[in-house]
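Q: Hand in one record:
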Amino acid sequence: MKRGKVSDTILDRSVFKLLGRRGNTSKPAYGQDAAHIHSQGWDTLAAAATGSLAVYRAVNNISAAGGAADCIMNTIIIDEKSREIRLKEIIKELDRQCQVVGVGIAGGHTTVCPNVNSPVVSVTAIGHKLRTHQKAVAGQDIVMTKHIGMSGIRTVISHKRDKILNVLPEDVINKAFAADEELIIAKEAQIFIKQNIDGAMHDASEGGIFAALWDMAEYSGTGLDIDLRHISVKQEIIEICELFNINPYILDSMGCLLMTCENGCDIVNIMKQNGIEAAVIGKITDGNNRIIHNTEEDRYLGLPEQDEIYRFI
């Protein structure tokens, strides 16, 4: 199998079809990145993620599901060649990310395994529900916050900084490299929740904005009508993408939140009043057609592709 997220086809064939709904948990589904657990009057959300920014990814999934994260649990699998100092570095980085999002590490599991080549970190965020996770409805506007490609371009810069500096000035790197706080969607998600608006939320992450749009439509059983020109990309990110022939629309885009509502312009204005960039990028439609409009052509949105970051890691 290819590196990265498992495809929808494999998920359906080898995961979802083998699982039923038991107890008080929600059933796994496309585009649903957090589990809902109802027990003895309590509504709890749980979301898992892996990788170097796993805390942010897991906490973002809780936020997009209509909740607020309370703590995380981590699993660390270390190869036999790693020294104890490497474990300390991993824990310090996890704790640093937790400080950024305001949660603590409640526990975890750490083991040394001979079958891995480098440390593997998995994080599960646990939180409480602020509102019910809703589906998108035909006729609603689609609003996107911030810019695409922010987390992905950080990975590219980390691996190809010297090569970039051979062609582009350091100022381009500095402007393209998003601060950790820009990768968190909790603020805009809670603003949306406080408006008490009927609408869906979904955070962009691995697979980029195209994967996020597909997942949201697949979960809701709807179509899409998207104007590519309204999807915001920083000029500096475009310049680095052009240097390596990267498609920014399938590049890891943590920090972007998709929201649907009846009047997207109202949400855009509210977000901007709170210092968050946002734009209406399209509409939810009836049926299954998922169309992307560009200046020169229209195209159908296909199944999510492998994220561009796997060309660099």
